[in-house]
Specification:
Elements lengths: L2 E2 L1 H11 L10 H7 L3 E2 L5 H7 L7 H9 L3 E5 L5 E5 H23 L8 H12 L7 H8 L8 H11 L2 E3 L14 E3 H5 L13 H14 L4 H8 L4 H7 L5 E5 L4 E4 L15 E3 L4 H4 L21 E5 L2 E9 L2 E6 L5 H18 L7 E3 L2
Parallel strand pairs: 1-7, 12-13
Antiparallel strand pairs: 2-4, 3-4, 5-6, 7-8, 9-10, 10-11, 11-12
Helix pairs in contact: 5-8, 7-8, 10-12
């Protein structure tokens, strides 16, 4: 079984994450290829796509949101993701059990007297008119029936048992708007695809293929870390003959699609600025291919990061005075120059006035 070291895996990840060279694909295709973008911070997907696409206009993504071709919803790991409407409709039912279990993992005792199917039916009745509602409004509409649980517990479970999207202007470029929820079926005018009655798992199999296309080569544990779903080993087994095997430096078996890109490890990797919680980092259980273990904490703390030679080497922030970069290791003169150049482009993209100022801490 061929051994793939971290540098080889790094270049494969960068290529599939559209970070090795800018992609010319349409925004909707990029969102689909990536299996969605982590979007709990509403403006972060704009930076994620700016870093990946050759020509990216923020208005394009905003138009996809308002045009209902892209949806903000709880899905992977029960975090807010930006996904294509087609993927949300095809995948949402497969995530239903996981979404419930993650809320129960926090509020099991508070919700022990709540019949979740009955709660889902009540929530749907409240939302059948298609009007976007805040969580507070949803809870107030059903809490007379379930007065025992706290509002927080009841609200979070409602957002799991009723498939909802966050309606614009939430997530629109430079918009500041609170969360208002609408049923996905009402918003998109189509019903969510039901799970097959024969017990097969075509969605699980599709998720395996889609994950490997955008994140592989990877282990089964990485796949689960990306989506949060249990039961995927059976889906992997069902398509095992389609896949090829490798091994990483930790001795783990890695799976991949036969024709997927695995660039030469010597391929140059340009500086890239990534948004908070980017799945290029969070989409793995073992993240050594892209971030040092000593810096792993920044990947879950909401820090925006800078890739230098394909690896996390700095954090960054943006303000009215431009972009500030804080290195996590010593950067060479050439690396600082490349970071400053790319940071200037980012500052100009984010600025209302085209300012391109970049400050790199010593």
């Amino acid at each position: 079984m061929t051994l793939l070291n971290d540098r080889t895996l790094n270049r494969a990840t960068l290529a599939r994450q559209l970070l090795l060279e800018p992609a010319g694909m349409p925004v909707l295709d990029a969102v689909a290829h990536l299996g969605g973008l982590q979007a709990q911070e509403p403006q972060e997907p704009f930076v994620g796509l700016w870093s990946r696409l050759r020509e990216f206009a923020p208005s394009t993504l905003s138009d996809l949101l308002t045009g209902r071709e892209v949806v903000r919803t709880h899905l992977m790991r029960r975090t807010i993701h930006l996904l294509t409407a087609d993927d949300v409709l095809a995948w949402r039912a497969r995530f239903d059990a996981m979404l419930r279990q993650r809320v129960l993992g926090i509020y099991r005792h508070e919700l022990e007297t709540v019949d979740l199917d009955e709660l889902a039916a009540s929530g749907r009745r409240v939302m059948t008119d298609g009007e976007p509602r805040t969580v507070r409004e949803l809870v107030e509409a059903v809490e007379e029936r379930w007065p025992a649980p706290g509002r927080q517990a009841l609200g979070e479970m409602l957002l799991s048992v009723v498939p909802v999207a966050q309606s614009p202007p939430r997530g629109v470029w430079r918009a500041k708007a609170g969360v208002r929820n609408v049923m996905i079926s009402s918003w998109l005018g189509r019903e969510i695809d039901p799970l097959p009655e024969d017990g097969s798992d075509p969605v699980g199999q599709a998720l395996v293929r889609r994950y490997l296309a955008a994140y592989g080569p990877a282990a089964s544990a990485d796949l689960r870390a990306w989506c949060g779903l249990a039961g995927l080993p059976a889906a992997v087994s069902a398509i095992r003959e389609e896949l090829v095997d490798f091994r990483d430096e930790r001795g783990r078996v890695l799976l991949d699609l036969p024709g997927a890109p695995r660039p030469d490890p010597g391929t140059p990797a340009p500086v890239r600025f990534l948004p908070a919680f980017d799945n290029a980092i969070l989409g793995y259980q073992a993240r050594g291919r892209i971030i040092d273990d000593a810096d792993r904490g920044v990947s879950v703390a909401g820090e925006r990061v800078v890739l230098v030679d394909g690896r996390v080497a700095a954090t960054w922030s943006a303000g009215d005075d431009g972009v500030a970069v804080t290195p996590l290791r010593r950067l060479s003169r050439e690396e600082r120059s490349a970071v400053a150049e790319e940071g200037g482009r980012l500052a100009s993209f984010l600025s209302d006035h085209g300012h391109d100022r970049v400050r790199i801490a010593r």
